[in-house]
Write a structure and sequence with these properties.
The chain is an alpha+beta fold. It is built from 2 helices and 4 strands, in the order E-E-H-E-E-H. The model has no long low-confidence stretch (mean pLDDT 90).
Length: 78
C-alpha cells in the first residue's frame, strides 16, 4: 500500500518594513506555498500587534540555490 506523499515545504522570506521605521527586515517561514507563508506572517503580526508593510515574498529554490520572487501574493492579499 502506497502512502500519500507529504506536501513539499520550501523556505520563504518575507521582506517588510515597520510603519515607523526607515529600514527593512526579513521574516523566514517554512511553508508549502507563498500564500501560506504570507498567512503565517499575518498570524504572527496580528498576535504581536505590529503594523507593517509587506514589500516582497520570495521562495528559496533548493536546486538552483537562489530566491524566486513570488510577490504577486502581496497584491492578492490587498
Amino acid at each position: 500500500m502506497k502512502h500519500a506523499e507529504e506536501p513539499r515545504l520550501f523556505r520563504y522570506r518575507i521582506k517588510y518594513q515597520m510603519n515607523e521605521s526607515v529600514g527593512t527586515n526579513y521574516h523566514y517561514y517554512m511553508a508549502c506555498t507563498a500564500d501560506q507563508a504570507l498567512h503565517f506572517q499575518k498570524i504572527m503580526t496580528d498576535r504581536r500587534g505590529w503594523k507593517l508593510v509587506t514589500l516582497s515574498v520570495e521562495r528559496r529554490c533548493p536546486w538552483a540555490e537562489k530566491w524566486i520572487d513570488e510577490s504577486h501574493v502581496v497584491q492578492l492579499d490587498g
